Amino acid sequence: DLVSSRKASPCAIFSGTMGCGCLASELSFLLEPSDVIAVRERPLMLDCRVQGEEPIMVTWRKNGVPLPTSQRVQVLANGTLVIQSFQKRKEGSDADMGEYDCAAQNRYGMLVSRKAKVLLASLPKFHTHPLSMTVDEGSVARFQCQINGVPEAKITWEKDRVPLNNTDNRYTLLPMGILQVTGVRQADAGVFRCVATNPANTRYSGALRTYKEPVILSGPQNLTITVHQTAILECIATGNPRPIVSWSRLDGRSIGVEGIQVLGTGNLMISDVSLQHSGVYVCAANRPGTRMRRTAHGRLVVQAPPEFLQWPQSVSKPAGGSAVFTCVAQGVPEPHLIWLKNGKVLMPGHNVKLTNNNR
Ligand SMILES: *[C@@H]1O[C@H](CO)[C@@H](O)[C@H](O)[C@H]1NC(C)=O
Ligand SMILES: *[C@@H]1O[C@H](CO)[C@@H](O)[C@H](O)[C@H]1NC(C)=O
Ligand SMILES: *[C@@H]1O[C@H](CO)[C@@H](O)[C@H](O)[C@H]1NC(C)=O
Q1: Which of 28, 54, 237, 334 has the most CB atoms around it within 10 Å of its CB?
Q2: Residue 69: what are its φ and ψ, rounded to 5°?
């Protein structure tokens, strides 16, 4: 037997590498320190339980060097090492990361434990943030975020800052921080981000927005109406987030406010139209907060029925003289004047002349 024959002088048993065939009175480990990931500024405990004949003295080493005890670093009666507030490497102060082992000694000899690696938990910034994407309804969206945590971070997802509904089987979470959304619906649009958690920290990725660019489903038609009627110019747009619909005139003139109303979400209604309302109207659907927009045009033509401004007057003239009849009318489009004589259309001839728009 390796140990029992050498009781007179202390011997070391390196457990794990050589095995331990100790007698009851001699030293053996009940519990050896195991590898751990420590959290900064939190207490850390490393166990070292030994059985054997008392008195047993337990000491600890870090990276092969005896560890001095202090207020912050203590060895408990049961052999456990307690570091009150784990320290990260800092200039001028010791880092607590390293390889720790414990040594137990009684009058029969000394026993040294395995080396336990102590790492510091960390969660650096995300190195892959999810990317924004435009998704068609019914299609698939895939997002990924990546972070190197010690220990590995648990990744969950949030939509509009609310944890993702994980009972919804359209969402699939794969390792490596991948989120798949199948059968995308309008309701899926929003701000997604991933949340990484480990004992060191919790981090949120950059936010990503699924959006649909604005689309005008139906823009204004060309419309011809008569003064005092009501014009309705249609404009309906979709997108995610919901686009803002606005109206303007192509010639830059103001649409005004009197008699103007918006029907529904974006249709323009002009009551009691006048000739000034004629023009090309532009409906614009803007993605909120951006300059991204779609536009559609429609021409509104307002017509005015013919109206006489001046009528022919009765005249009497001697034979051989000239008689001039004047007739002025207005309207939109410009009225075409026809002269009648005793109910019959008067055509230009050798002694009849028509001027201006009568040609
Ligand atoms: C050692 O003692 C401390 C304090 O009494 C206790 O918290 C810890 O669990 C003990 N360790 C073992 C391995 O029994
Ligand atoms: C989660 O998804 C399931 C399945 O689609 C749905 O029935 C449930 O109402 C959702 N819960 C919430 C809180 O949205
Ligand atoms: C409206 O009229 C313009 C010409 O004024 C034409 O180019 C355009 O195609 C017309 N739009 C519709 C919807 O008919």
Answers
A1: 237
A2: -90, 160
Write the DSSP string, 227-252: TTS-EEE--EEEEESPPEEEEEETT-
Closest ligand 3 atom number to CA of residue 219: 13
Domain boundary among 206, 225, 246: 206
The model's confidence at residue 65, banded by pLDDT at 50, 70 and 90, is very high
Pick from 152, 206, 161, 157: nearest CA to 181: 157
Pick from 76, 81, 83, 84 the residue to mutate for probing ligand 1's pocket: most ligand atoms within 8 Å of its CB: 76
**Per-residue pLDDT reduced to its tens digit, 304-334:** 999 999 999 999 999 988 999 999 999 999 9
Residues in contact with 334: Cβ distance below 8 Å, sequence separation at least 6, in sequence order: 357
Does 81 lie in the same domain as 26?
A: yes
> pLDDT tens digits for 41-56?
999 999 999 998 889 9
Per residue in 189-241, pLDDT (tens digit) is 888 899 999 999 999 997 666 667 788 989 999 999 999 999 999 999 887 77
> What is the 8-class DSSP label of residue 146?
B
Last residue of a domain, one of 206, 231, 249: 206
pLDDT, position 208? 62
Helices (H) and strands (E) in the chain, counts: 0, 32
- Residues 136-145 have a mean pLDDT of 86
The string of DSSP letters for 198-229 reads: ETTEEEEPPPEEEEEEEEEEE-PPPEEEETTS
Q: Which atom of ligand 3 is nearest to the CA of 280?
A: 5
Q: How far apart are CA 192 and CA 131, in angstroms?
A: 10
With a CB cutoff of 8 Å and minimum separation 6, the contacts of 136 are 184, 212
- Confidence at residue 168, expressed as pLDDT on a 0 to 100 scale: 86
**C-alpha closest to that of 326 among 344, 341, 314:** 314
Residue 198's domain comprises: 133-206
Nearest CA to ligand 2 atom 4: 168
Q: Residue 278: nearest ligand to its CA?
A: 3
| Residue 341 is assigned to a structural domain of this protein | no
Centre of ligand 3 to C-alpha 219, Å, is 11
Contacts (Cβ under 8 Å, ≥6 apart) of 93: 87
